Amino acid sequence: MINFENLIQILKYGTWDKKLEASETLVNFDKDRVLEAVLPLLQSQDDDIRDAVALTLRDLQSNKSVAPLIDAIVNPINPENISTLVYALESLDCRNYFAEVFDMALSSKPDIQIGACNILQEQNFVITKNELEYVSYLLKQSHVHIFFYKCLKKVIKQITMTTKRKKGAKIGKKRRNQKKLGKRKT
C-alpha cells in the first residue's frame, strides 16, 4: 500500500505518468490533509508539479482551493503554463471571483479563454453594477477572437438579466408584503 507521504514525494519528484497516478490516488485521502500538502506546491518552479497539483485539486473538488488557484493564475510562476490551473477551476465554485475569471477569458491563449468562458457560462455569478460596467468596458477594449467576444457578451447579458430578475423578485416580494399588511389593517 502506498502511503500519503510517498504520494506527495512522487508529486514532487516522479515522472509525469507517476505524478498523474499519485494525483488520482490522493483523492482517496482526507481532503484537508491533501490540501495542506499540495497547495504550497502551486508555487513550485516545476510546471509538471503545478499541473499535477491542479489536477489533484480538480478531482478533490474542494472550494478551499479556489483562492490559491486564482492566485497562482493571476501571479503565475510561468505565464505560459497556466492552462491546467484554469482547467482545475472549472469544477470549483468561482462565483466570488468574477472579475478574475473574466480577465482570464480575455487572455491571448485560446485554451485559457475556453476554460474561463466555460466557468463564466456554467456558474451563476451575481455581480455589482460597477463590476458589470467594468467588464463591459474591458470587453470593448479587448482584442479577443470574435467567438470569445460573443461568448463574453452572452455572459454579460445573462448576468444582467439574472440581476434584473432578482431585483424584480425583491420588488414583487415587497409589494406582496405591503398588500398583506394592508389587508390586515382593514
List descriptors.
single chain; about 190 residues; mainly alpha; 2 domains; about 0% strand
Describe the protein.
The structure is a single chain. With 186 residues, the protein is mainly alpha-helical. It folds into 2 domains: 1-89; 94-186. The protein is built from 10 helices and no strands. The chain has helices at 4-13, 16-26, 31-38, 47-60, 66-74, 83-89, 98-105, 110-122, 129-141, 146-185. The longest helix is centred in the C-terminal third of the chain and has 40 residues, at 146-185. The model has no long low-confidence stretch (mean pLDDT 83).
Give a short synopsis of this structure.
The chain is mainly α and 186 residues long. The protein has helices spanning 4-13, 16-26, 31-38, 47-60, 66-74, 83-89, 98-105, 110-122, 129-141, 146-185.
Sheet having the most strands: none
End-to-end Cα distance, whole Å, is 75 Å
Strand content: under 5%
Q: Radius of gyration, Cα only, in angstroms?
A: 21 Å
Q: Name the average pLDDT.
A: 83
Encode the helix/strand succession as letters.
Answer: HHHHHHHHHH
Number of strands: 0
Name the poorly predicted regions: none
Helix content: over 70%
Task: Work out the helix count.
Answer: 10
Which outline best applies? elongated
Number of domains: 2
Structural class: mainly alpha
